[in-house]
Each structure stands twice: as structure tokens, then as C-alpha cells.
Amino acid sequence: MEAKTKDLWVFVETNENGTAKNVGIELLTPGRMLADKQGGALVAVIIGSGCEAAVEDAAAHNADKVIVLDSPEYGFFTTDAYAAVLYYLVEKYGPSVVMIGATQNGRDFGPRVSCRLQTGLTADCTSLDIDEESGNIAWTRPAFGGNLMATILCPNTRPQMGTVRPGVFKKCEPVAPHAEIIREEFHVAPEDIRTRLIRIVEEDTDEVVDLEGADIIVSGGRGVGGPEGFEPIRKLADAMGATVGSSRAAVDSGWISHAHQVGQTGKTVAPKLYVACGISGAIQHLAGMGGSDCIVAINKDPDAPIFTVADYGIVGNLFEIVPLLEAEVRKIKG
Predict the structure, then answer these.
(1) Residue 278 vs residues 233, 253, 256: alpha-carbon distances, Å
(2) What does the alpha-carbon distance between residue 280 and residue 247 come to, in Å, rounded to a whole number?
(3) Are 65 and 9 in contact (CB under 8 A)?
(4) Could you tell me if 145 and 249 lie in one domain?
(5) How far apart are CA 24 and CA 52, in angstroms?
(6) Number of domains present in the structure of the chain
(7) Does residue 250 share a domain with residue 188?
(8) Nearby residues of 94 by Cβ (< 8 Å), 6 or more positions away
(9) Could you give the 3-state DSSP secondary structure of residue 132?
(10) Under 8 Å between Cβ of 68 and 46
(11) Of 18-27, 38-47, 203-212, which gets the smallest average pLDDT?
(12) Model confidence at 130, in pLDDT bands (50, 70, 90)?
């Protein structure tokens, strides 16, 4: 299809209580910059039920317009319904760009919409810009197992579409809302929805791991040596009020659950402080935590790649250094 406008759309995914998921609000930050560069409006698109809180959140984070479709039938995500709604909206308004968070839902229905629109979709992006020569969005994502970064352009079809990892960008400071609120109605026939919600099964675990929302993360890698090696990591995290993370090597070895994994095949994070303990710094891991404000690396190998990105590096045995850091933190906190 042809783009009818130069507008850039950000799909703001909602939680079951109608609030906005972080990734949608995060994407309004690069969305503002890109929309200004291409001379269009920044539009937040919200599909859900009872989602006024999400509308207000998007309006307060620099959206020029908010297109909202609020109906009880969209209270729970289904691929068929959400894909049909977004396809309808894109066909009606004709944006130039559509950005979607690379969540489970976004990775599910985003490609379906792009296929219906007969346009491309760049998945799992970690960086966004405008290609100065062509004016197209430059979508950057890890390729070849994370060993290099590929920048992809979509010059021939519209809209340009991509999914972007949560945690890559930071929310901007809220501003006085000025957005135009556009309320749409669209109903999907029940027979066109091939799945239905039978019941919600709560995860059987007492552990909640919010890596993406953490201000401080203390991570362990292959250097911890085993599951018991995470004990000093957990103690330091407890002292600092931090969340425990890990590298893929530790997860693959069965030392800690996948919920803690940071990296290309785990969570992308951008905390204020990231403490890497016994992590060598493979590019796949760096891709997931490189946006941290401050990185502290502890490793006995002075040539470990992690030191090339660290703001502070400590060469030594983590089992000696981490308890010392914990003691100092607890002393400071009294």
C-alpha cells in the first residue's frame, strides 16, 4: 500500500488492568525523534479494554495523537482480533512507519499484519535511525547469532514495520499532554477468532524477576562455577536492592532459571547500574546490557571483553570481591 501520511505509529501494548506496558512508552522516545526527522506526527495506537490509563500515559510522553480502540472484546489478546484491528487502522490512516514492541504478543501479531499489508518487517531491533540518503528508517538488529549488527532498510513498500526489544530505549520525562485523542470502533466477528480464553493459569513460582524495570542488576556468569556460586551474587543484590541477572552460559548450565537471563536470547536491560560478576562479555550478552548507565565488571581475566564496555573494572576473584562489596554496601546503609 501507499503511505497516506508521513506519520510514525507506535503500538502501545496494554496490561490486563488497562495500563500501558513499558515498551510502548519507551518507543515514544525514539519515535519522537524519528517523526520529527521525517516531518510527520507521532501517533500512539492503543487496543484494549478499560485502557484510559494507557491513553493518558501515551499523551504525556510526547504523542501528537492517540488512536484508541477500547472495547471489552479486546480485554485479552488474541492474534486474530488484534491483527484485524491494526490492519484496519493502517489501511484507513496510511502511516509511513509502524513500530511494535518485541514482546510475546508483538512478535506474534506484528508479522501477521505486515503479511496482510504486503510489506516487510524487521524483527527484534536494538537501534533505530533515519538513513540520511534515502529517508527510510534504518532498523538495526543482531544477526548471525549476534556476531554482527545488520542495518535494514525498507525502500519499496509502506508502511515500514519493525519490532523493537523492550528496555533498549528509556522513557522520556512526562510533559503536559497535548495529544489529539481519536476514538475508533471496529468489531471482529467471533467466528473469525480461532482461539478463545478458557482460564488464566498463574505461574507456579514465588519468584518475580523484573529485569526490564530494575534500576540495579547484579549478574553472574560462567565464572560463578555452579548454582551455589550465585549465593554471593544474591547477597550483594539484596544489600543493594537489586535484581539478580545472569548470562546465557549460567542458564544453559542449569544454575539459574531463564527468567534471569540478560542478552540476545534473554532480556534487554538498561539499568542505572549493572554489575557483571564472572561474565566474559560475549557479544550476545553485551547486546542485552550495553545500554546500562554504569557498568561494573568483576573478572579474574584482565583481557575479558567485558572490560571494553565497563565504566569500572575489577580484576580478581569474584568470591573474594563480591562479599567485600556487600559488606561495604551494608556498612554505608547502616
Answers:
(1) 10, 14, 14
(2) 9
(3) no
(4) no
(5) 15
(6) 2
(7) no
(8) 1, 2, 3, 4, 5, 158, 159
(9) coil
(10) yes
(11) 203-212
(12) very high
